[in-house]
Amino acid sequence: MARALYIHWPFCLAKCPYCDFNSHVREGVDHALWERALLADMAIEAELAGGEPLTSIFFGGGTPSLMPPALVARLLAEAEYLWGFAPGIEITLEANPSSVEAARFAALADAGVNRVSLGLQALDDAALRFLGRLHDAAEGLAALDVAQRHFGRVSFDLIYARPDHTAEAWATELSRALAFGTRHLSLYQLTIEPGTRFATMVRRVTSSS
Ligand SMILES: C[S@@+](CC[C@H](N)C(=O)[O-])C[C@H]1O[C@@H](n2cnc3c(N)ncnc32)[C@H](O)[C@@H]1O
Ligand code: SF4
């Protein structure tokens, strides 16, 4: 039987205008407090759903690539102690493609992460600015390159159906994306989620027209 563990890191450097995930911007994060809380939560989860070794662990966010690699290593050690790891376990971490985060990829791989899901979102600067991302296209592709050197498995996210995004432009972007040779892509249609900055902008535009 497959048993998977999900660990959520709810902090980001900035809130993207489309995002309604459980993600928050904070001046500082008390890593020791979060370590204690996550370890306590894992102990309870293991009591409720122990017994089978884990086949998959996913660090999602928020931006887990902002987690100190030592904290990731500590959580993985505890997960292995509580559940055990099945052979070939997949350990994924969601990463934002900034140069600062790419610089941590080696340490995250040493901590035990063997797959990264990278939030590229788009391959050109204008689209990335529209999406409110902190990285530009060159920085994103450089991070992809570093990720492919450090992790056996890499996937990345793209958001399509942006305003003025034609089917032809999306086909071209997808062909470029496929050429990077990752074996997995996650493709999301831009969704206007209630409570986001984009939802406010849409409301303003529709109420003034
Ligand atoms: C937890 S989020 C992102 C992880 C990471 N913090 C990042 O931004 O790269 C997972 C993915 O959901 C997608 N996503 C989030 N909100 C979306 C929306 N409103 N419309 C379309 N895609 C969305 C983005 O592609 C994002 O990378
Ligand atoms: S898309 Fe990612 S980086 Fe942006 S706010 Fe959401 S979780 Fe944070």
What string gives the helices and strands in order? EHEHEHHEHHEHEH
Categorize the overall geometry. Answer: globular
* Radius of gyration, taken over Cα atoms and rounded to an integer in Å: 18 Å
- What is the terminal-to-terminal distance? 55 Å
Q: Total number of helical segments?
A: 8
Determine the mean pLDDT: 96
Small molecules held by this entry: S-adenosylmethionine, iron/sulfur cluster
The biggest beta sheet reads:
6 strands, parallel
Class from helix and strand fractions: alpha/beta
How large a portion of the residues is in β-strands, by DSSP E?
A: 15-25%
Report strand order across the widest sheet.
1-2-3-4-5-6
Residue windows where pLDDT falls under 50 for at least 5 positions: none
Q: How many DSSP E strands?
A: 6
The residue fraction in helices comes out at 40-55%
Q: What do these coordinates show?
A:
This protein is of the alpha/beta class and 209 residues long. The chain is built from 8 helices and 6 strands. It has helices spanning 31-48, 69-83, 99-102, 105-111, 125-130, 137-150, 167-179, 197-208; strands at residues 4-9, 54-61, 85-95, 115-121, 153-160, 184-189. The protein has a 6-stranded parallel sheet with strand order 1-2-3-4-5-6. The N and C termini lie far apart (55 Å). The mean pLDDT is 96. Bound molecules: S-adenosylmethionine and iron/sulfur cluster. Residues 12, 15-16, 19, 21, 23, 61-63, 96, 119 line the site of iron/sulfur cluster.
